[in-house]
Amino acid sequence: MPQPLLTLDFLDTAAPAAEATPSGEVRITAATRTGRQRKLYIESYGCQMNFSDSEIVSSILFDEGFDTTDDLANADLVLLNTCSIREKAEQTVRMRLKQINSHKKRKPGMLVGVLGCMAERLKSKFLEEEKIVDLVVGPDAYRDLPGLISQVDSGQKGVNVLLSREETYADITPVRLNSNGITAFISIMRGCDNMCSFCVVPFTRGRERSRDAHSIVQEAQALVAAGYKEVTLLGQNVDSYKWASADGLEFVNFAQLLERVALISPELRVRFSTSHPKDITDEVLHTMARHDNICKYIHLPAQSGNTRVLALMNRTYDRPWYEERVQAIRRILGEDCAISTDMISGFCSETEEEHQDTLSLIDFAQYDMGYNFFYSERPGTLAARKLADDIPLEVKKRRLQEVIDRQQVHARARYARMVGKVHQVLVEGPSKRSAEHLSGRNSQNQVVIFPKQNFKKGDYVNVLATSTTGAALLGEAV
Ligand code: SAH
Ligand code: SF4
Ligand code: F3S
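That is the input. Now the predicted structure with iron/sulfur cluster docked in place:
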């Protein structure tokens, strides 16, 4: 009998703290009560980049006299920070707008704005399609929010969806309202220059640009000074980070940036996401090996295990290349380094044999975790223009289920092999299971739960893992 993957007692799952992957999650920005005149309510969908952007938006509007509220009924301004990655993500937002419309009937002065990737994709079409929307603001135009809001206050609609080649919001200190005070995200770059044929991100986020390395290090230092213990460096493709100083004398690549952040304090854990298999270098892997405080976890989305499909996806690597990168991780960082993936099932013209190749790649890599989806055609992408979305929905869903099932076998095995070992755990808070237990993560990003004793949030605790639920380790402090 297979063990249940997740028993109801242990709801602490390895939440996607360390990847830029959309999680289907929605976040409501917490309230500030500083007596400002107007109340802003923000709901964020999609990936970590969006969650991080909402902190920048809160910061910009705080300076404009807005406190945040977590109660929609109290809001003067409601912003939805949206995602376009799959059709379902967009449908969720449309449905939410309908509910917000009924609130607006009760509070006609309330302004409603759409931010993020859907704003960028649909532009002013949004205003025609969804009559309640007053503001449409793309991901590179948040500095313009105060101006656009005054425009709406004076009775017009406000739209700015200009993409930028420079904007990185480097000088804006995000207000970390959703943080546990221990772990934080730092955006190190924006946009994406890869043209994966299925993907809408290059259209919604624009060209890739890297943020000033000094501003990243300063932000991490400020977080350490404020008591934070872990930062995750975020980008769609962190391994292509590159920044040069204006005088051209200083050049920083991702491995060097990672090292600069790791050197801030041995007490600070450093994570990063996402790594593109074509760009992750041995230099990055050796940098990880040199620093104990760089976590041994790599999110390395494969998308498919078949070379022909990878070519159609325009991923620019083939299966042997991907396998070699996995072997390099194992060689340089050892078997314990965790690896996770994203897979797309039922991409245009994928055959049963090609789908089997994805399953065999999962066996090869023995991923700790997988974020798996069925293909959803996105308007305007290369695939939508050039390839037929010809795999029937039932087939896509069946293949996806097979991918998920295969992945679960490995996830469980990866947890099982950690039993009997001592893990350094950064405590993030009480376990959802009981107030007598604490929950945290090991370097591999696995959830570890153990009796509280006198430990508290933010402590590093050595925990001997004594058993596993398949989705968390249980143990005791040693
Ligand atoms: N920059 C990351 C991916 C960001 S999007 C990378 O290159 O790996 C997150 C994930 O969403 C992707 O890895 C992919 O698996 C999934 N995804 C993107 N577009 C999709 C689509 N059209 N249909 C289904 N899944 C998609
Ligand atoms: Fe999309 Fe590919 Fe860029 Fe990732 S690397 S954001 S999948 S285009
Ligand atoms: Fe992120 Fe979704 Fe945009 S995954 S980059 S919010 S399309």
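Residues 1-23 have pLDDT under 50 and may be disordered.
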